[in-house]
Amino acid sequence: MASSRGEFSSRLGFIMAAAGSAVGLGNIWGFPTQTASNGGAAFVLVYLVLAFCLAYPAFMAELLIGRYGQANAVTSLQKMSSRSWQKHFAFLVGFGGIICAALILSFYGIIAGWMMSYAIESAASLFGLNSVAEWVIGNSVERNLLFTIAFMVLTVFIIRKGVEDGIEKWSKRLMPMLIGLLVLLIIYVMTLDGAAEGLNAYLNPDIERLKDPSLIVSALGQAFFSLSLGTSVMVIYGSYIAKKENLVSLGAQVTLIDVSIAFLAGLLIIPAMYVAQAQGVAIFAEDGSLISGPGMVFDVLPKLFEDMGMIGTFVGLAFFILMSIAALTSSISMLEGPVSYTVERHNVPRAKATTLIGFVILCISVAIVANIETGLDFVATLSTQYGQPIIAMLCCIFVGWIWHRSSILKELKQGNDSVEHSLFWKIWPWYTKFICPVAIAAVFINSL
């Protein structure tokens, strides 16, 4: 069955695709913004601990569900179920994750379109096309629709190609570009006045802040959401992994890459904020809070690039290309969840299913654009603050309480014969059963 529905051709292919899904706008911009708002280095320290203590175990649960089921999220969860009520429960959880992924993509595509428009603004400025540059960053309905459509077309184009020729092929191309651009931008920003102060704020923790419960819960949420959990994405990606692969090490490698890129993003954004501050741009209010919050990427950073002169135009172009690539590596994973369900459960050809679902999600995006003031926040809150934590928590409950422990061990041993004697197996099953659901519930309650 795996061969007819496709699978990743190599370990590197899966790592790049899964890391690409995890490394999106939330990681490149969300993590540094959270860091700046929550004590700098203290937040980074807590985040790093929780990424491996909470996100990795939950990530492994979703990968295991997918590889065991070798199917879409709904079918995979139902294969774990032995009773009628469990199968109905499995449908609700699996389909809920698919709907969640579609909703996230509907607003994500709009924000990604803005990233593309700012990249084009920088390019237009280089060629003296000032009227074009001014229009593409104007907050008009026409501009929002144009770039949302353009981004969705790119996403649909990749997913139509399938697993190996679409997701894997483009992830292998985009992820190295993303990492390369990120490193080059970090090197450049570190040469500017104010960067050293930002670096100190990022790497020198205030130990007293570690006692702040809100910081801990915020870091917990960031670590959890950064790995695309609760959207059926990692279940479907897990289903494309060959049985011979060692899931324990694969999951650890993806988590490490995700955390590393988030850390690198902080090395870019936090010093860049202090560089902007050194140049007279207001970053923090009197109470120490961020003035612009998450929207600062479209506010403060363009001002910073503008103050750099001609070199700032090139830096701005590279930065927004980086953000667009990060968005695309995540969007293709979000679209794959609904597409795989439609292809496998309703026997619709992949090209047709991709185009149809892409169009439906685009229609939701258009409705959001038409009501941008309230629609964007509503859909984002519904999907990320409510949908994701609930679905991921239920996946952990499935693995911990419904799936038989012997079946889990058998699945893990297919790629690692000695896993039964490892530290992972001694800790992970009970950790997923008890700790993860409680910790995820804490994040959800905090979001309320």
From TrEMBL:
It comes from Thalassotalea mangrovi. PROSITE patterns: NA_NEUROTRAN_SYMP_3 (PS50267). It holds the Pfam family SNF. This is Sodium-dependent transporter. The keyword Ribosomal protein does not apply. It is found in: Membrane. InterPro entries: Na/ntran_symport, SNS_sf, YocR/YhdH-like. It is a multi-pass membrane protein.
